[in-house]
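User: Hello! I'm new to structural biology and keep hearing that structure can be predicted from sequence alone. Could you demonstrate with DNA polymerase delta subunit 4? Please show me the input and the output so I can see what each looks like.

Assistant: Of course. The first part below is the input, the amino acid sequence of DNA polymerase delta subunit 4. The second part is the output, the predicted structure written as tokens.
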Amino acid sequence: MKRFYSQRKNTTKKPSKSRKKSRVVVESYENDYSKEEMILRQFDMDMTYGPCIGLTRLERWERASKMGLNPPQSIKILLQCLNVPSECLWNKLK
């Protein structure tokens, strides 16, 4: 029977102390954009108001309003009053 069910030695290796843990540097890009741009980027990422590819932000807001999705009024005010890019986040990446 020992031949079929031989015991195995515990061969798990402990990590050596000489290895240094790699450090991942995470950069924050939040400081690169204004507060208004960050709000508009959140609007672009929110799929509640439908897809944004092929539309400007204002067109997307108006479409969502016509469909009864109740987009925030602050977004429309930002788009009409301030000098912010009208293209959605995804159109900028092209």
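User: So the tokens describe the shape?

Assistant: Right, they're a compact way of writing down the 3D structure. Reading them back into a model, for example: The mean pLDDT is 78.
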